[in-house]
Amino acid sequence: MLIDLQSIDENGKDYNFDELSDELVGAFNDLVGEAPFKVQLHVQPMGNTYLVNGSVHSEYSAVCSKCGYDVDLPLDNKINEIVVIEKERPRNTQVSQSQQNFDASSPAVTYVNSSTFDLREFLHEMMASGFSLYPKCTDETLCDSRQHKDVLIAAPEEKRGHPGFAALKDLKVSKH
Ligand SMILES: [Zn+2]
Q: Using CA atoms, how far apart are residues 125 and 28, in angstroms rounded to an integer?
């Protein structure tokens, strides 16, 4: 889905999409499968620079990094991006130079070489970066109980350990 950034007037433009929008049918299948999604965007021109603000929302499947169970997690990512049209870079196609600062709240910068902007690709990237590096259950109690279950299974092993361990424990107790 290509948009011409230069066609956007000084008032900016709003974009709203969901899984029923023709423009984005199947756009995130590789990320969120058939899950519903919502995309809200506002593009505000400032000369050759465009502020892109908004959010993407969906749901994805992951493996909990704590208990190892499969979990469905909400995907919420804020979009806070500056798109700069730089015609001097002829070889480079869109994107991938998103330069995330240390301060996550400050906008990332994307350079493009023409005013034609691939919104579908951009949103795909925004959706992908909403994935957690350390996914975990939204229900902490449930997650804890799942972890606890693993401990219980592991416990008998410990009892069969070398008797020397018991002596070590005693040492710790008598320590001043
Ligand atoms: Zn968990």
A: 10
